[in-house]
Amino acid sequence: MNSDLQGIHIIATGRYIPPKVVTNDDLSEIVDTNDEWIRQRTGIERRHFSDGEKNVDMAVKAAKMAIDHAGIDTSELAACVTATFSPDYFVPSVACMIQKELELPDDIPSFDINAACSGFIYGMQVARGMLLQSPKKYALVVGSEIISKFLDMEDRGTCVLFGDGAGAAIIELSDEKKYVSYLGAGGNDEYIFCPNADEEKRKVHMDGSKVFRFAVSTVPKCINNVLDKAGISKDDVDFYVCHQANKRIIENVAAKLDIPLEKFYMNLQEYGNTSAASVPIVLSEMNDKGLLRPGMKIVCVGFGAGLTWAGVLIEW
Ligand code: UT7
Prior knowledge:
4-stranded mixed beta sheet, alpha/beta, 33% helix, binds oxa(dethia)-CoA
């Protein structure tokens, strides 16, 4: 089999959202903001913050749900890849701690990648590459973020946007499922960044309107590139799963590409922007609702700090 033709099949998904809900009204007691502004400018109504859980605690729960749903023997895993920009430690990685907590075999590479909000899609691409070189059948890909730990709760321009959570998927290679990807980066430490060298400033900083403009030009580019490479039209796609940053970004993309908004699943109203966790949380939620059926074509798109971007066509 020509490896270029082997797609990936997501055989199961999982997610974990911490139970602590933080509403827009809650935030208006901390910073000069209000529910109306946040809803109108972002679509976000509430988000969930960790209440003592670590990044790895959420990642383990999402990963376990995906493994349980897949019903696989973990000895068949070829890799454990976690996408995150908010790990508990520089080392050990979140992925290594998942390996420990879930007692995954010790003969599989386990590591984190950081491509911010594009991370889960980068992670699927990396895991696919590892599966192509492994005799084992499955890979675990997780996106997990504890962004609340890195928020400046005095900056209304960022603290209202983000939330915590984790999503996960078990993937296998497939000769039948189409897979096309378009990944890229353009280094930029001005639009959005989170320093680690200076503990005082270890917070998310963002020029919102510059990131907004980057998003509304990049997402259509990713979608068009994926459609062109796959040789299909926008109408052939059943769902577009876009990184959940802002409802207005998704509406703008839908209008620009003349794609019905109903094809863009949104849950940002409940979770806010969970960076690398947002795409797998959406996939898990849609899967549990029975929205995803075998053969459906789904285009996932991520964009964010780095700057990074990633689009992928998968078949369910
Ligand atoms: O996942 C990483 C990718 N990140 C993103 O995709 C975020 C992309 N950017 C955005 O989603 C939007 O730019 C924001 C939601 C962050 C901001 O929306 P905007 O429409 O671009 O607003 P703005 O930054 O231009 O600010 C407009 C006004 C300003 O006040 P003045 O200068 O006009 O008086 C802000 O100070 O809104 C003010 N403002 C707020 N007011 C109430 C900014 N944040 C808030 C707030 N509550 N939370």
